[in-house]
Automatic annotation (TrEMBL):
Residue span of region Disordered: 244-280, 419-445, 529-567
Organism lineage: Archaea, Methanobacteriati, Methanobacteriota, Stenosarchaea group, Halobacteria
Record's keyword terms, sorted: Membrane, Transmembrane, Transmembrane helix
Organism annotation: Natrialba hulunbeirensis JCM 10989
Superkingdom, taxonomy of origin: Archaea
InterPro entries, per database record: Hvo_1808-like (IPR047792)
NCBIfam families: Hvo_1808_fam
Membrane-spanning intervals of the chain: 21-39
Protein name: Lipoprotein
Length: 567
């Protein structure tokens, strides 16, 4: 099989999003992750392993090994014991995954203090990124998206994999290092993936990178499930999890980059963290968007495994998923999403933000089904527990009638043309798309911005259902309906206004044409036509435009948390 390795594999897998689901007052588990550092290296063993050996045959180590520390629920391992635990886990992973490690994996240990000293903080998000998250009603217009990511990711990291190296971040123990089975096995699976397939992602949009991450993290969560099934009767194992003194996030402890959001920031850095946070303290829409690959990826990989064994999973690395819709509904894989082109209908007062450099090509991104679900759920439009209907290998269910007909979308940001002759519109070009990149073109941060978001759906009814949902979202925030009269007889277009005192203030136009929904957002309703002269066409009847704001789950007020109680 062709290996796909990239020079950016360190960046892509510098930290892994990881969670253990616990019953919280509001039923949501917060996650965190992030990137690299160095520590004290444990004694290494021979780098290369033979390729003509049986699965699990690592010389003096085998899957059947038992050690004294297996009986301890909170074992503190010495360096020698940690090495034993690592090699035994590698042998067992080979048996479960039916894939051999090609060479050794370095294991390092650093203290949490060292980790905090060496991690960086993100800069200011670009206008494109801020408008992307504002238009999707995930981060409001008064908040910098990177600051929101910092607040979300600030927590305790237990470990991560990067560049043939697993780093364990631990609090000081009396006699050794604390590590749990889930963390060790998960990170070793990443090492195995890297040796055979590479961990660099090639997706150009946020949604495509989320999908690729769903394959990578999905396998890294699914293999430990199969591993755990053998613990007890067949194998003596380390404790599945161990208590830590750093399980509570620190309010001022931010992370650099966009957690895959991709820190890749895309949540991608393969870092194992254990941080439970009250949902009043986190952005639940942003969390659910980032967490989608980790929640839905295991079910996607399990489905591939059921269809064609590990050969089918191996093949997926050469034909990676391209949308989170494929994670949510594996029957959609490997069909690609629809390409959506956004025509430029702006007048001279507005121009698209471009990709930068010498290119004048407009910068665009794709929101995707998972993030659509995240924003509608977080804003109370989808009103059900996240766990309701969750598939066997996933903690949450990201499927809903309002979003399940998604076929493709494109989000494009506009900037008001400068009146002083300076019309530069460069935006940062980091590959993270709509996730926490910073922008060096700060002179344009004070300009006004707008967006055009076009979505294609499987059927006209799917399009109308989502348009109703977005209008309900606007109504939930207190939007007034400015105009529901269409210039075309029989057609429907609605214009909405959110007042200046609302953090999402501005004008919004929502129109439907057959299987396509077009949403335009601008600083005022008067500017909408200037940004995008929408030409509406007939669509199925919609009633959500004038509906009263629905009661939001989790509280009585329009801005109370929508997070349901734990089941």
């Amino acid at each position: 099989m062709t290996k796909r390795r990239g020079s950016d594999s360190r960046q892509v897998v510098g930290g892994r999003l990881r969670t253990r689901v616990r019953s919280l007052p509001l039923g949501l588990v917060a996650i965190v992750l992030l990137v690299l550092l160095a520590g004290c290296t444990l004694p290494a063993s021979p780098d290369q392993f033979g390729t003509d050996r049986e699965y699990g045959d690592l010389g003096e180590y085998s899957p059947e090994d038992t050690f004294a520390f297996d009986e301890e629920a909170t074992a503190e391992l010495s360096e020698a014991e940690l090495e034993q635990a690592k090699y035994r886990a590698m042998a067992r992973i080979e048996v479960v995954r039916e894939l051999r490690f090609e060479h050794d994996v370095e294991l390092e240990v650093i203290t949490r203090e060292e980790y905090r000293e060496q991690r960086g903080e993100s800069g200011t998000a670009s206008p494109f990124v801020n408008e992307f998250w504002r238009g999707t009603f995930v981060v409001d217009g008064e908040t910098d998206a990177n600051q929101e990511l910092d607040a979300l990711y600030g927590a305790s990291v237990q470990g991560y994999y990067t560049d043939d190296r697993i780093v364990i971040v631990t609090d000081p123990a009396n006699d050794g290092v604390r590590i749990d089975r889930d963390t060790l096995v998960h990170e070793l699976v990443h090492a195995l993936q890297d040796q055979h397939f590479g961990l660099a992602r090639e997706g150009e949009t946020l949604d495509e990178r989320r999908a690729e991450l769903g394959l990578i993290e999905g396998e890294a969560n699914y293999v430990p499930e199969l591993y755990d099934e053998r613990c007890g009767e067949q194998w003596h194992c380390l404790a599945a999890s161990v208590p830590t003194d750093a399980s509570t996030p620190e309010a001022d402890d931010g992370t650099g980059g966009e957690a895959d959001v991709d820190g890749d920031g895309d949540g991608d850095a393969n870092s194992d963290t254990d941080a439970d946070t009250d949902t009043n303290e986190i952005n639940s829409g942003l969390f659910l968007s980032i967490y989608a690959p980790y929640a839905m990826g295991p079910e996607f990989v399990a489905t591939l495994h059921d269809r064609g064994g590990w050969d089918a999973v191996d093949a997926a690395y050469d034909d990676r998923p391209t949308s989170t819709a494929q994670l949510i509904d594996p029957e959609r894989y490997p069909d690609d999403p629809v390409t959506v082109d956004v025509p430029d209908r702006s007048d001279a007062a507005w121009e698209p933000i471009t990709v930068g450099g010498e290119s004048d090509e407009p910068r665009t991104d794709t929101v995707g089904e998972a993030t659509l679900f995240a924003t509608l759920w977080a804003n109370g439009v989808i009103d059900r527990p996240l766990t309701a209907g969750a598939p066997e290998h996933s903690p949450y269910n990201y499927s809903a009638p309002e979003t399940s007909g998604w076929a493709g979308d494109t989000f494009q940001v506009y900037q008001q043309v400068s009146t002083d002759g300076d019309e530069g519109t460069n935006a940062n070009t980091d590959a993270d798309g709509g996730e926490g990149g910073s922008d060096d073109d700060h002179e344009h941060h004070d300009s006004q911005h707008a967006f055009v978001w076009q979505l294609t759906w499987d059927t006209p009814n799917d399009a109308a259902t989502f348009a109703d949902a977005y209008r309900t979202l606007l109504a939930t925030h207190g939007a007034t309906l400015e105009d529901s009269n269409s210039p075309v007889p029989g057609a429907q277009q609605t214009i909405h206004h959110l007042p200046d005192n609302d953090p999402f203030a501005g004008g919004y136009a929502v129109s439907v044409s057959d299987d396509t929904v077009t949403i335009v957002g601008a600083p005022s309703t008067a500017a909408l036509e200037s940004v995008h002269d929408t030409v509406p066409t007939p669509t199925p009847d919609s009633t959500a435009a004038t509906a009263s704001p629905p009661a939001r789950a989790g509280g009585a007020g329009p801005y109370s948390s929508p997070v349901p109680s734990a089941p």
